[in-house]
């Protein structure tokens, strides 16, 4: 994101140094940023096939995947018609003409299950990969009293169980999963992945070399049996405020997070 | 360890640049090394009180704690009389005279529970801190077929459940726990800590900056409710084969792993 043009209530932002552009709400809703770019960078550059961007919002991560993975197609899935309207406006932009035919949009609630999920268009075994950036920030970061904390943990468990249950259903055998979350959600994520996804790789994201991780990116494969590994971390910033070279490459679609 | 003197079946090795010495079996049993030094370095330098080194073997981690934490005392706990005999021989060394009165030895099986555990000398709420380096390498690293892998996972779950159950029982409220394990054991560890230890801190240990972690050190506090965090990793080696400055400091008792 290096250019922004205010147009009433929306902004028009360039990503991947202009490889794609997004129309986003200026003030309300979740605005895309580094989280979405890191999530998209967890998909191997050589990936070909259908990918579901679960809880896509305005579509930043999904757009980033089709921009970097030239043989991929992406379905943006969100329950918010307002956010998907922004995605539709982005698709209509002349700047996104080359990517347009590899992106489609599905209005559906990711937390649906069984027949309802299939009826909503999230069909069993219909994708090769699922990515997700669950709404983990919703109020939780500001909840400090013990009672609220416990509630947040319960919500967390439930959130990841529902979202990963859907990923399990919609990806084909050996299909991929990538998600970005707060480190505090790790146990809930591992619980939800158990018996469903294996070969899990955890990549911690630290703001600086000497600070605790603010995010984890987790990648895994459906039905795989291999154990968990911890990959070398990503440090976002160097000594000053500027991005490290690696973070800048990832943010701009020039490198993958897991080196593939 | 920078000097070794073979004496029939044992070696005499200096640790922490000569701050303490250990008698160890030359060929059989688990020989202490970097794992034990990293585990000991997870204890804050200011720690004072009683610490249990569960599954101590010949006592390397426990010796390293008393050498660095000058107000601590340590009980070495192992079920193997042979390994504890090495610890006794180390305690008798003139070189360890200054540390001797802060170390005692308890022959007991860490996996005992309830009355049997108390009767074996591992009394409830009698320690301020427990450290453990469970025998996770026993055959597991060489098990490649799927069946053996699954068995190893089951063993892993059970291992950490039993060991952490004992730590839960013997530490006082708000007491500390630190353990070192393979990354693949992370889920088993989090399961075993759930509802018992909180404020968990995970510190991945990588052989080099660009390689997956080979160990995780996990630290937590009994009865605490805070969530999990991922600390900046330790890289053992730089470009060549030599230790990084930080790894060398930790290996030699001049720095703590978590910066306290």
Summarize this structure briefly.
Helix content of chain A is 28%, strand content 29%. Chain A is α/β, with parallel strands linked by helices.
Report on the architecture of this protein.
The structure is a homodimer of 260-residue chains. Chain A has 260 residues and is α/β, with parallel strands linked by helices. Chain A has a single domain (4-251), classed as 3-Layer(aba) Sandwich (Rossmann fold), CATH 3.40.50. Helices cover 28% and strands 29% of the residues of chain A. The first copy, chain A, is built from 7 helices and 12 strands. Chain A has helices at residues 34-40, 60-68, 81-91, 114-119, 146-170, 186-193, 245-251, and strands at residues 4-7, 10-15, 20-25, 48-54, 71-78, 103-107, 127-132, 171-181, 197-206, 215-222, 229-230, 234-235. In chain A, strands 4, 5, 6, 7, 8, 9, 10, 11 and 12 form a 9-stranded mixed beta sheet that branches. In chain A, β5, α3 and β6 (103-107) form a beta-alpha-beta unit. In chain A, α5 packs parallel to α6. Residues 1-8 and 139-143 of chain A have low confidence and may be disordered. Chain A binds chain B through residues 146, 149-150, 153, 183-184, 186-187, 190-191, 194, 202, 204, 206, 209-213, 216, 225, 227-233, and chain B through 146, 149-150, 153, 183-184, 186-187, 190-191, 194, 202, 204, 206, 209-213, 216, 225, 227-233.
């Amino acid at each position: 994101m290096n250019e922004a043009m205010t147009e009433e209530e929306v902004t028009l932002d360039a990503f991947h140094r202009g490889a794609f552009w997004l129309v986003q709400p200026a003030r309300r809703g979740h605005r895309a940023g580094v989280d979405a770019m890191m999530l998209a960078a967890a998909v191997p550059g050589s990936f070909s096939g259908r990918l579901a961007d679960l809880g896509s919002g305005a579509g930043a991560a999904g757009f980033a995947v089709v921009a970097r993975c030239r043989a991929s197609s992406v379905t943006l899935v969100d329950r918010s018609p307002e956010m998907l309207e922004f995605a539709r406006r982005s698709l209509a932009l002349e700047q996104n003409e080359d990517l347009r035919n590899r992106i489609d949009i599905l209005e559906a609630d990711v937390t649906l299950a069984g027949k309802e999920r299939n009826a909503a268009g999230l069909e069993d075994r219909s994708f090769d990969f699922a990515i997700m950036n669950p709404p983990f920030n919703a109020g939780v970061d500001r909840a400090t009293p013990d009672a609220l904390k416990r509630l947040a943990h319960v919500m967390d468990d439930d959130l990841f169980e529902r979202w990963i249950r859907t990923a399990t259903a919609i990806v084909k055998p050996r299909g991929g999963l990538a998600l970005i979350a707060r480190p505090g959600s790790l146990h809930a994520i591992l619980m939800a992945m158990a018996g469903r996804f294996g070969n899990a790789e955890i990549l911690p994201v630290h703001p600086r070399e000497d600070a605790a991780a603010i995010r984890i990116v987790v990648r895994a494969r459906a039905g795989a049996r291999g154990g968990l590994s911890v990959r070398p971390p990503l440090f976002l910033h160097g000594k000053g405020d500027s991005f490290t070279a690696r973070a800048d490459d990832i943010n701009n679609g020039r490198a993958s997070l897991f080196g593939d």
